[in-house]
Design brief:
The chain is 11% helix and 34% strand. It is mainly beta. The protein has 2 domains: 76 residues, no CATH class; 93 residues, Nucleic acid-binding proteins (OB fold (Dihydrolipoamide Acetyltransferase, E2P)), CATH 2.40.50. The strands form 3 sheets. Strands 6, 7, 8, 9, 12 and 13 form a 6-stranded antiparallel sheet that branches. A 5-stranded antiparallel sheet has the order 1-2-5-4-3, covered by helices on one side. The longest helix has 16 residues. It is elongated, with a radius of gyration of 19 Å. The mean pLDDT is 91.
């Protein structure tokens, strides 16, 4: 789930739950939903400052906001139960091997603490034994890209190993993924 609020562009809380290429909007009293075949992808809540405290809108604490969102939409749309687990986590590249059908891609196995993910990566500096930032399936990148399971040249990929640029962090000029030092703990949230 991604929450966006900027009072300078209007008193609207933008709630993104899932990405989709096909969607339609439905207007309700005080909010608009974004749906795909009746699956709720997101919503825009108007006059947000009347429902949410200033602290909720500036801190964007997902847990407290979800409860109020459910109060707003329950009569029209049911409830949302988003996965609030961290989507940007520290991973450890256990295996990195060349993609069999692509010169510039590697197939990695990345330990993210509670599971191992297969991620296809095109960065030139990815290698075994690195600690990296992983955007798990369900993450929204700073540029709005939704991370979903995909397939690259016939190989499944479940997440993304991120560069500083993709994370909207200060670029140090290093081309490729952001390699972390050993102080980071595998599985911990990268954005604490």
């Amino acid at each position: 789930m991604k929450l966006t609020y900027n009072k300078n562009i209007g008193d609207v809380l933008l709630v993104s739950l899932k990405g989709s290429d096909n969607f339609e909007t439905k207007d309700f009293d005080g909010y608009t939903t974004i749906v795909d075949n009746d699956e709720l992808l997101g919503l825009n809540i108007f006059n947000a400052s009347e429902t949410f405290t200033e602290e909720e809108l500036t801190e964007l604490n997902e847990e407290s906001i979800v409860e109020k969102i459910n109060d707003i939409i329950k009569g029209d749309f049911g409830e949302i139960n988003p996965d609030l687990s961290p989507k940007f986590v520290v991973g450890f590249v256990k295996e990195c091997k060349p993609h069999e059908d692509a010169d510039r891609l590697n197939v990695t196995t990345v330990d993210v603490g509670d599971e191992e993910l297969q991620i296809v990566c095109g960065a030139p500096n990815v290698d075994n034994g690195q600690k990296v930032v992983v955007a798990k399936v369900g993450a929204f990148m700073p540029n709005g890209l939704y991370i979903k399971p995909s397939e690259l040249r016939g190989v499944k990929s479940n997440g993304m190993i991120c560069s500083k640029k993709e994370l909207n962090l200060e670029d140090d000029g290093v081309r490729g993924i952001y390699v972390l030092d050993d102080n980071y703990e595998v599985g911990q949230s990268f954005f604490k």
